[in-house]
Specification:
451 residues, alpha/beta, Alkaline Phosphatase, subunit A, 2 domains, seven-stranded mixed sheet, two-stranded antiparallel ribbon, globular
Length: 451
């Protein structure tokens, strides 16, 4: 057998301060291993997506369980991915409830979402939650990647002061917690995320050094073009196609960020605050962040990503889909049919962005598998009915098969009040992380793999 040329999984294309990680190529793994298992070299990843203010559950919940379910109105955009999806109903977050602490459901449901613990009610410095599920996994797998984890969002967050009935703004602004007293601040500027993934950080450490950043903001692809050409000449046909598709996606993100920065100079409506690199068009901002998520995972720059569609109690308006009203205000609908319909439309819009992410993940091939198959993508909220601030029967989805350890394509209805943390315990198991409990778990969630 002719010896095949191989490159390291950690190969970077470098040039003029830029460093471009590569997706998984056949040339990075022994031919026999790829032929034998298709995805043996691909690592397991996890993505955690948080949406604020709950959902209209009658439009969310499928009528039937099992693999013959029909996606209801809100989830219809996921129809192309139904076979990659678990709809999980009946799950609850008891610690998002007051339990004697009074109002503040939005703050609690946000920082409890990935921690599963009762927060210390304070608007001062003595904040206390717990290490979140994403950070526990990052502690284990992050040693193998450049970034242990990546925290993204679309709304600025405050880390001090009160934001919800005596709860610190830190609770409303974060789902990821490094330690019980240290939230992981999310990045909302796609430019800074892009440069964190692909740029030499010494060029961009000071946000105030505008001149240096302006000089640096040329294409990382242009900077690394010599090494790129050299690599392309040595790759096989399939790898060249995969590399071309990857480079095209990087170029497209660069274009969209540059376009957003250009639009940021235009006159915007009053009370619109758009930092550099952040499009004022919300769905474009979300899609750019999701594209960056895919790039970060595909290049194995990180294996753990969390993303917040909005902060807890976000009152963002959605004029682009015909809803000028604030989201949070609409959820207090008092059974007004028009307000309920608007909330359902916002829920569906968020799901459309999830469908976009799943399509992007599925398009990244890894051996005979794909990036979605080698991932767990959790989507949901710590509130179900926003009008009542319910924390049971939460809107929870899990996409991907976790390298064959999950059987998707089903709606599973669990007994009411089953802890959501049981799912997190099961996710830890799939990363080979031993834990007897997590949050208020009572044991691993059953039936994720069909018998």
């Amino acid at each position: 057998m002719t010896k095949r040329w191989q490159i390291s999984r950690r190969t970077l294309l470098r040039g003029a301060g830029a460093s471009l990680a590569l997706p998984l190529l056949d040339a990075m793994s022994p031919l026999t291993a790829l032929a034998a298992s298709g995805n043996s070299e691909a690592p397991l990843r996890a993505v955690f997506l948080f949406v604020p203010n709950g959902a209209v559950m009658k439009d969310w919940t499928p009528a039937k369980t099992g693999d013959k379910f029909v996606l209801p109105r809100t989830l219809e955009p996921l129809q192309p991915h139904q076979g990659d999806l678990l709809v999980l109903t009946g799950l609850a977050h008891d610690k998002a409830r007051a339990n004697g602490d009074g109002p503040g459901d939005h703050a609690r449901s946000t920082s409890t979402f990935l921690t599963g613990v009762q927060l210390n009610k304070t608007s001062g410095r003595d904040i206390r939650a717990a290490t979140s599920i994403d950070q526990i996994i990052a502690d284990e797998v992050g040693r193998n990647t450049e970034l242990p984890s990546l925290e993204l969002g679309c709304e600025r967050g405050k880390q001090a002061g009160g934001c919800d009935s005596g709860y610190s703004c830190a609770y409303s602004s974060n789902i990821s917690w490094r330690t019980p007293a240290m939230p992981m601040n999310k990045e909302i500027n796609p430019r800074f995320v892009f440069e964190r993934l692909f740029g030499d950080m010494k060029h961009v450490t000071s946000q105030q050094d505008a001149a240096r950043q302006a000089r640096y903001r040329r294409s990382v692809l242009d900077a690394a073009q010599d090494e790129t050409r050299s690599l392309q000449r040595r790759l096989g046909g399939a790898d060249r196609r995969k590399l071309d598709e990857y480079l095209a996606s990087v170029r497209e993100i660069e274009r969209r960020i540059a376009f957003a920065e250009g639009n940021g100079k235009k006159k915007l409506p009053p009370q619109t605050d758009v930092p550099s690199g952040v499009s004022h068009v919300y769905d474009e901002r979300v899609k750019t962040m999701l594209d960056l998520t895919v790039l970060a995972l595909a290049t194995d720059t990180t294996r753990i990503v969390s993303f917040m569609y909005g902060n807890g109690a976000s009152n963002r308006a959605y004029p682009d889909i015909g809803i000028p009203d604030g989201h949070h205000g609409l959820t207090h609908h008092k059974n007004n049919p028009d307000m309920i319909d608007k909330v359902a439309k916002i829920n569906r819009f968020h799901i459309q962005q999830l469908a976009y992410l799943l399509a992007k993940l599925k398009a990244v091939t890894e051996g005979e598998s794909n990036l979605l198959d080698n991932s767990m993508v959790l989507y949901g909220s710590g509130i179900s009915d926003g009008n009542r601030h319910d924390h049971h029967n939460l809107p929870i989805l899990l996409a991907g098969s976790a390298k064959g350890t999950i059987t998707p394509g089903r709606h599973i209805a669990f007994p009411d009040q089953t802890p959501l943390c049981n799912l997190y315990l099961s996710m830890l198991e799939r990363f080979d992380i031993s834990a007897e409990t997590f949050g208020d778990s009572t044991g691993p969630l059953q039936h994720l793999t069909a018998s």
